Amino acid sequence: MNMTKRWIAVLMTAFIAAGTLAGCGSGNGTTNESAAQATTQQASAEVAAEEEWMTDPQAYMSGIKASDYVELPADYAFLAVEVEPAAEVTDEEVEELIESRREADRELKEVTGRSIVREGDVVNIDYVGRIDGEEFDGGSDEGYDLEIGSGMFIDGFESGLIDQKVGDTVTLELTFPENYADSTKAGVKAEFDVTINSIQQYIIPDLTDDYVAGLGIMDEFGHSVATVDEYRAFVRNYLIERNERDYTSRLEAAIMDALLEKSVFKQDPPKVMVARLNDYMVEGLTSLAYQQYGTDLMTFMMKNYNSTAESYLDDIRKMAEEYVRESIILQAIADKENLSISDDELNAMLENAVNSSSGYTSVTDLPDENVQSTRERLNRGRAMDFLKSKTTVTAPASEEGSTGATAAAETEAAE
User: How sure is the predictor about 382, in pLDDT bands with cuts at 50, 70 and 90?
Assistant: First the structure.
C-alpha cells in the first residue's frame, strides 16, 4: 500500500474517533457549508442509501465474524518489517522552529529617524496607473502596504521606490511582462504615479523570558512555559514526539502492508460496511478540504491524490474498501487473541465520555453507529498494539551500523 492511502487510513481513524459523541457519519454531520453537503450527498448516492447501512448489522464488525472473511497468515504474530528509525532532533531544528514562531509573531511598526526607503521596508503608498494616459482597472489604490523586495508588483515598481523619501511622489515608467496574467496588458507600457506616505518595518520580537511567557504555552503537566530554557526544552520534546509519531505511523503501515500481502480474503467485505466507511470518509475529507484548504472535495482529491473529476469518488470508495479489509484483518486477530473490548469496558469508557460531554446525558442516548464505531476503533488499536509488541523491526539495509530490534524491546527500553 502506498503512503497516500496509508495517510487516508490514519485520517479515517481520526474521523471515527472525533465522531464518537458528535454524531459523525450519521448523514447529519457537522459540515454546514452547502457545497460540502452537496458533495457528500452525491457520494452517498454512489453507495447505499443511508438507512441501508444504518440498519444493517453487517455494516459493523459486531455484525460479522471476521474469520469468515479472511484467513490470517500463520506467522501474523511473528512478522518482520523494515522501518527507518525515528529521526534524531538536532539543535538546529529546535532553533529553526523557534525562529519560525518569532517570524510569525512579527509586527509592523513605523520607522522613525529615517525617511529614505530601503530594501525590506514596508511602504504605505497611494498609486495611480495609466496606459496611454488613461487610468486602467486595478491600477490604482490608496493606503496600500507594499513590502519592498516581495515581488508582489511588476518589475521596476518596488525597486523604483528605493532611495525615495516619505512625502515624495514618484513617476515610474514600466512595462508589463510578456507573460502577464491579463493578456490585454502583456508587454504593454504603463506609467504609475506613486506617493510614499510612510515607512514601516517588520519587527521580530526578541527571544526573552517575557516573550515566552506571553505565548501562553502549557506543558504536558499543565505547567506554564515561562522561560527561554523551558521553551527550548518544550520545542525539543515536541519535535521528539512528532518524530516518534511519524515512526509509529510508518511501523503500523509496514505491519499492515505485510498482513494485507499475506492474508487471504475468502469473500469480499460486506457492501454496507464499505458504504458506511465511504460515507464517513467523504464527509471527513469534505470538511477537511473546506475548513483547512478552502476548497471542495473534488479539487482536494485532484490536487493531493492524482484523482480526476470522473474518478475521485471511486478513488475514495476504493480507499474505504481497503480500510475495511484492514479492519477485518485486525478484528480477526483481536478475536483470536481475545483482545476485543468487553461490553462492560466499552460502556464504562463511553459513560465517562458522556459525563464530560454536553451533548448527551447517558450512554443509552448515543446512536448505535457511534457505539459500534468506537468499539471497532478500540479493537483495531488493541490488535495493532499487540502486533507492534510482537513484530521484529529492523532498519533498512542502507542504514549502516543499524541492528535489528523488536518493537517490544524498543518500547521496554524507552520506559
Answer: very high
